Amino acid sequence: MSRSEARYHHGDLAGALETAADGLLAERGAASLSLREVARRAGVSHNAPYHHFPDRLALLRRLGIRHMGRLLDAQRAARDGATDARSAFVAMGAAYVGYAHDHPHGFAVVFDPEVCEPGSTGQEMSALIAANEALIGEAIAAIAPDLSTAQREAAVVGAWGAAHGLAQLVAAGHVPVEAVRPAFEAYLAVGATLSDGVTRAAG
User: DNA-binding region(s): which residue ranges (predicted)?
Assistant: First the structure.
């Protein structure tokens, strides 16, 4: 055992490896991430990561959980800083896209189907995904409290899809990040206009 490994002996080796891996992920992306390189960055033997991560995929899944948690925290912080329901919705959407813009490789790992396999994401990731859906649902309910459960669930899919699609467009350079907040504001304005039109027609 190296001196670095001895320093991590009391339980923080996994955290040190995860932090080292996250640093490498930010610099190089997931494609070039290896357990050997993570061990080198953390200053431990090349065998040390296998005590906590049986393979590279297990490490990537851990990083996916880390970034999904941070993505959720970014949206919560944006919501908590808003002054009303509509501005909270816009702020959350902007925070989602902003996180993807600022942490592109971490965001990509979260939604990599080989890392976060649909229908088999694991208990911790499933809980984070459910929390994200609930957060969006609460924001929508605050704006449109009269929606039925089915309508709200459909609106969650639409809102998450809009945010994720914008994140992908920003990442690809097709949309500037500065256009994101106005896009969400326009999204709400269009929805309000359509709702008013339906109400007038019904009346």
Answer: 34-53
